[in-house]
Design goal:
This protein has 3 helices and no strands. The chain is mainly alpha-helical. The longest helix has 22 residues.
């Protein structure tokens, strides 16, 4: 995927916004570009996991490949 190209949304917008807004006394507003930023981060996590699996000679991405350290 070319850098700067619009990536497919991997998040469920309404559910993600619901969690971001919080509950009770600590309610937050969510700007329109927030979901895009989180989506970009999810893509980055996926690409990193693919790289770790490939570096270990595996074709299977495992949970520990996804964990950000």
């Amino acid at each position: 995927m070319a850098k700067g190209s619009k990536k497919e949304m991997l998040l469920v917008g309404s559910k993600t916004k619901e969690v971001l807004k919080g509950q009770g006394k600590n309610r937050f507003n969510v700007s329109p570009d927030t979901l895009e930023a989180i989506n970009e981060h999810v893509y980055w996590i996926i690409f990193q996991a693919q790289g770790r699996a490939a570096a270990n000679g595996r074709k299977t991405i495992r949970a520990y490949d996804v964990l950000v350290k």
